[in-house]
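Hi P.,

Sorry for the delay on this. The queue was packed all week, but I finally got your sequence through. Input first:
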Amino acid sequence: MHGPASSGWLLVALCAVTGAYCLVRMRSGAGEQRSAAGGEALMGFGMAAMAVPAAVFTPPPWAWPAYAVVFGAAALPALWAARAGAHHLHHLVGAGAMVYMSVVMAGAPGHAHGQGESGVPLLTGALLLYFAGYVLLAGVRLVPVPAMAGSRAGGGGAAGWGDRPELARACRLSMGIAMVAMLLTL
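Then the structure:
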């Protein structure tokens, strides 16, 4: 991805930590949560790999088509699961955005996407709007509700790290922010 190396490394760190936490969430007892966490871990680690600053490491020419194939394959289960709920539809859009970014980077000679064009490509703009909206909505969902805070204080046992819904929401918010950043630098 394009942009300063320092922000690129911050993006790599954010995505890698998010992917690692999603691996922890995969140990949860709920089958649906494990499946979603697996897709999110793949997305987090894939975003981390794509965000490595080009000044440090230039991927070989076959890497971008390989990313497109991996994320295209990840989109298939999300497509099937999207029939059951909107959360899976978000996974499908995320996997599609990763395929799109991979294809753009594969087709950009020397990664010079955007040169000679006027403005932002339509699909990039649509994805930016979607993920910006998702980030705003996910951020609002993280705002604590006073009634819930009071009921949780006296509640039973401590939940494991992988079973904490607020951390899962923060994980999704982080990946949404990272997706916006990656689309902006495309």
